[in-house]
Amino acid sequence: MKYYNREREIAKLQEVRELSYNDHSRLTVVTGRRRIGKTRLINNAMGDEPFIYLFVGRKNEASLCASYCKEIATKLNLFVPSITSFQELFAFLMQQGETKKFTLVIDEFQEFFNVNSSIYSDIQNIWDQYRLKTHINFIVSGSVYSLMTKIFQHYHEPLFGRADVMLKLNPFSLPVLKQIMKDHLPAYTNDDLLALYTVTGGIPKYVELLVDAKALTVKKIIHTVCDPDSPFKDEGKNLLVDEFGKQYGTYFSILDAISNGINTQSDIAAALGEKSIGGQLKKLEETYEVIQKMRPILAKKGTQTVRYGISDMFLRFWFRYFEGNRTLVEMSQFEVLEKVIAADYTTYSGKVLEAYFKQQFIESHEYRDMGSYWEAKKGKEQYEIDIVALRLEKNKAVAVEVKRQHKEFKPKEFGEKVQHLKDKVLPKYEIEQRCLTLEDM
């Protein structure tokens, strides 16, 4: 698959490189979840210019340094003495930067925690000593977002405040997903586009896997992710175990509950056997950024009317179908799993369509606030509106009901909900009512 998007990020990396070479050394931090395309971005930004690439694997420090010495000797075309500590190696590189201009990339930078955590202090001391008298374009990237945030944004960490630029990569935007579909399946339907969004969430690697498999229709996408050799089947676990550590079991149980529609703290706790989960929910939201807390639009922060949702579209899908059907996966019953997903796809993707339109609203840059609205009636029913968006113009809003097909829309019932919203929350607003369907994607 050809390279899509990232023009802004590429331009920024190239700008920082020029500043590093012509002024003094700069440190750029590139973060984002695994499969988001950090390494490929750096490769594309550097173009044909060779750069030193050091990957931090889970080896001992001496072994890593031995491989790093070979890479440095090749790329800088010089003799590198035998070095067994990263402190010495980094000092050697910074000394070279006094007479040479080059780019140094350290990938999976957070893994130094597992190699020798004192390396971060060593880097800080040497960087502070040499930064202003060298010309090195220093780029570090990392996939475990919680650790990368800790390294560079926690004030008590040695590298706090040292990053000149921090780039966090996000999934493909909706226009980019549409362009990919147009390039590889010109006759695609909106349901095909929704399936691509449902499974991948716009994560470049997942999109590339489906493009390479020529699986871009609803049926082919479901078939491909359920293949016995599919990389998708263990992907959620592989992504999160490093983040969560040994206590991942409780976090997985919480995410499994949320993926199945159990979305309030009390209901999640009940599903987990009345466990105390406040601390885990806080970490999932604030440290790991895997879930998001949702309140009715314009509700105050302290309101108890809170729901939780999984913020990563792929993880929503994975927990619902792969973790939620772990027995089928472990028994290699992938044909059965495919039937389960296919049977549930219409219902599940209908809920995802709401997330799609919320993203569409955000990317339009026409609204200053957006969310959903709900309020319990007497009994179990609720005044619930899928999307409420406040326009940039004063006292104008849009209320949206999302349906896969327009024939499912009941305008009279929706009008009553909107009137309740106006009376209770937006009395001064002119509220436009809409129904958005697959046709509006």
Written account of the structure:
The protein has 441 residues and is α/β, with parallel strands linked by helices. The protein folds into three domains: 7-168, Rossmann fold, CATH 3.40.50; 235-331, Arc Repressor Mutant, subunit A, CATH 1.10.10; 365-440, no CATH class. 49% of the residues lie in helices and 16% in strands. The chain is built from 19 helices and eleven strands. The chain has helices at residues 7-22, 38-46, 61-76, 86-96, 112-115, 119-130, 145-153, 174-184, 190-200, 204-212, 218-225, 235-244, 248-259, 265-271, 278-287, 313-323, 326-330, 334-364, 411-424; strands spanning 26-31, 52-55, 101-107, 135-142, 165-168, 291-294, 307-310, 367-376, 382-391, 396-402, 430-436. The strands form three sheets. Strands 2-3-4-1-5 form a five-stranded parallel β-sheet. Strands 8-9-10-11 form a four-stranded mixed β-sheet. Strands 6-7 form a two-stranded antiparallel sheet. Strand 10 (396-402), helix 19 (411-424) and strand 11 (430-436) form a beta-alpha-beta unit. Helix 1 packs across helix 2 (38-46), helix 9 (190-200) crosses helix 18 and helix 13 (248-259) crosses helix 16 (313-323). The longest helix has 31 residues, at 334-364. It starts with 6 loop residues before the first helix and ends in a 5-residue tail after the last strand. The mean pLDDT is 93.
